[in-house]
Write a structure and sequence with these properties.
Chains A, B: This is Carbon starvation induced regulator. Chain A is mainly alpha-helical. Chain A has helices spanning about 5-20, 30-35, 40-55, 70-95, 100-115, 120-140, 140-165, 170-185, 190-200, 205-215; strands spanning about 55-60, 65. The interface of A and B includes residues 81, 84 and 91 of A. The structure holds a DNA duplex.
Chain lengths: ~220, ~220
DNA sequence: GTTTAAGATATTGTATACAAGAAAATTGAC
DNA sequence: GTCAATTTTCTTGTATACAATATCTTAAAC
């Protein structure tokens, strides 16, 4: 870890937080980080500000910035919000997706299917992300798309955890088919409803998520 | 304008951008701003970063940060996203609002009615904000509430413009009643639908918004 | 007169120095 | 020995100095 610029440092720090390198409530020492990244405090402070802005850390004036790992409640809230954002994207996408858009969505889903058949968790994790991003794009609303991407990125590490559980990939894939049908037929309400259900974490899914976080 | 801290500077700059002090595409000169606020470039740069993060400005490496006033398309997109966020809040609020929450919502709406009767545009502007914030709160999802507040704040100056038009306040108020009824009866779908329609900008509303921006 | 290239200038990005305030440690009283 | 107060140390926040790079100016060539 060495010799990076402010923006890259922010990304690196984000990765480190995602990888669980830091405990909840841990203070991010500017000087130590500066030494680790071989830069002065200035770019470190810029990177820390970004972390704070993205909600991954909290800043207490004259005290420092402390990383904030979301607890169960906040995690549920974020998934709930994600579900609503995806539902909104689906609602618009059903009415606005072009044939090309639909084509790319179907192709993304085919790659998801490949990954499931190969039992390639990492592959499915990635292709599933692409699948959803195609829907955000299909909403034809750059702002909404941006918000969806932001939260999707924030929830990345937790979705990864979920996929580890047996049957989860297959179920997810099956739901994709229904979503595609709804989008193809232009049924906004159905697309929204299916996407909401697809993303919502509750019941068994919640148990799995929490169990996965223990490790 | 003088002698402020980084955080306050960010707020002040935000206000200035909201007040239309800066043209679209205008570069925010660090040195000039530093002189205006009687501080060094360091806190100015922190404030600028915040502006960039909140989407009110764009940063081009080694070139500077340029303020980005949203055009008609982006404005519509933001209102569309706001409508979906409000719908989501309404959906949850219908199922989760306590009697106390409903009580506060009704009271906020009473103050809205007062403002309409007094033809107090500024008053309605404020109380209407409170009314919607009560719904965000009623969603009982801090994360979603935060996102809704963020976008509401971003759209503030444009909603202000809309209220100038004759009949707009009365119509808005009438819609509030329907929304309250849906929330009281716990009808999630109806609450979501009504709130979406209440916030969505289209047809005549769009014409008014655009006309108001010309001034 | 236009175009291109080299130099000058200005602005951002980073490093360091300094100031202000908070946490920690030491000393003194009981 | 414990607690309180003062001093010390450490950390953040700000100012300034420096480095790197983009833009502007000027001059020369065609």
């Amino acid at each position: 870890m060495e010799l990076k610029r402010a923006e890259q440092i922010a990304d690196s720090l984000e990765q480190l937080v995602f990888q669980g390198e830091y405990e909840d409530g841990e203070r991010l020492d500017e000087i130590k980080l500066a030494e680790q990244f071989c830069v002065s405090r200035t770019p470190i402070r810029e990177a820390l500000q970004r972390l704070v802005m993205s909600g991954m850390a909290e800043q207490i004036p004259r005290r420092g910035v402390f990383i904030r790992q979301p607890g169960p409640v906040e995690l549920l809230e974020m998934f709930e919000t994600m579900a609503e954002l995806e539902a909104a994207c689906g609602r618009f996408a059903a009415a606005r997706m072009s044939d090309d858009d639909l084509e790319r969505l179907v192709e993304a889903n085919l790659r998801c299917r490949d990954a499931v058949e190969k039992e390639d968790t990492a592959g499915y994790y990635h292709e599933n992300e692409v699948f959803h991003q195609e829907i955000y794009r299909g909403a034809t609303n750059s702002h909404l798309q941006g918000e969806a991407l932001r939260l999707q990125n924030r929830l990345k590490p937790y979705r990864r955890v979920q996929l580890r559980f047996r049957g989860r990939m297959a179920q997810s894939l099956a739901e994709h088919d229904g979503i595609i049908d709804a989008l193809k037929s232009g049924d906004s309400e159905l697309a929204a409803k299916l996407l909401r259900g697809h993303v919502t974490v509750q019941g068994e899914k919640f148990q799995q998520l929490m169990a996965g976080l223990k490790n």
